[in-house]
């Protein structure tokens, strides 16, 4: 109906053809999605208003799911070497387990096979996979170490010091650590070069998370602040006062625009990073936070795990609850990519529970392939190294890359520069050659035309010089050059001889 109101027939015809093409492409995309991505994610749905999804227990869910999904939840009771921390690869196939008392193990979660298990015989604080499952970093008692999938020690990173937390940036091949002195380190694992080493100046912290959208590293501090860092900046890009006490956990959603923080003040806050405002706040405590691929938020509190779901407009409400056995203290919660699974590392071992609707049901083999072969892994590693981004590309808004910086207000031309440009324009105007349209010499008319060209060339520069003259100058220092009235001379500063 809107197109019929247009009077321009040509424009109306062009828009009609474009709308027809858009409709055809939308139908083709819908058909391709129907065939290529047939799996749909499903949440727990209550039958009526009185039924609550958070009252549904794991035993009830296991009775209703298929045989393959029913084998994924498990409980490993390892009371001697805990508490445990866990980490998944980007495709969700491999899991790395680290016990506080030196126990390390790697598992294939697709076949539930143990790949390697060994004991380092010293404190293990954190574990992190590098670009794939063949290499991983472990923050041990004195230094971080890098091991391969066979358990062989590859490197000892002494420059990092006593690391408390590790994170890896896959697109930049950077290993990030924060040590007990509050020093933030960035090291390129492809070349071994130390990219940056900064003192945060806000004390010891073991709360660190990388935003998946822009690769900015966020730290939670004891003063309730959250700082955001990049390897090419000595000072934090953003400093936010999030809580009235120490920050205990930080997490980012898949889009990178939402940040969840938890503090000792018993509050969980969800922030919109596009406006740096709180969109939701809950009176709850959390030792660990994690967002799933579908936007579910998992929080651990003592022996209980709570999962929140967005019901629209950042309205996060309680979706599921899971209580561990009495005495178990949950240390870390982490969603497994491309699966409806939540991994839990606690003081007595590790567990895995089913969370319907948490994982992405369809995976892109060019991004992450849980079924990839050895040849595909090798090719993917080569492509990742060729496409490696430099540390300078890390910024709050990555869309600013390849754009032109707007000129600053201070970068205005001086009066001398304006006069030089005006002289060049006048010379160019004088040298303009005109066609001889009249017979004879006609000198007065030619002279008038030249004067008119010169005035036309001078006009914009005269306006610019006028603006420069009208600018408020800095206050002149009162000295010998400025003569004040006798009544005000006693207030003038005397020059030092």
From TrEMBL:
Compositional bias of kind Basic residues: 433-448
GO biological process, one term: rRNA processing
Places the protein is found: Nucleus, Nucleolus
Annotated stretches, region: Disordered: 428-482
Domain BING4 C-terminal per the UniProt entry, residue ranges: 318-398
Recorded superkingdom: Eukaryota
One GO cellular component, as annotated: nucleolus
Family annotation (Pfam families): BING4CT (PF08149), WD40 (PF00400)
InterPro entries membership: BING4_C_dom, WD40/YVTN_repeat-like_dom_sf, WD40_repeat_CS, WD40_repeat_dom_sf, WD40_rpt, WDR46/Utp7
Feature: compositional bias, Basic and acidic residues: 449-480
Repeat (WD) residue spans along the chain: 240-281
Keywords (A to Z) from UniProt: Nucleus, Repeat, rRNA processing, WD repeat
Alphabetical list of PANTHER family matching this protein: WD REPEAT-CONTAINING PROTEIN 46, WD-REPEAT PROTEIN BING4
Protein name: BING4 C-terminal domain-containing protein
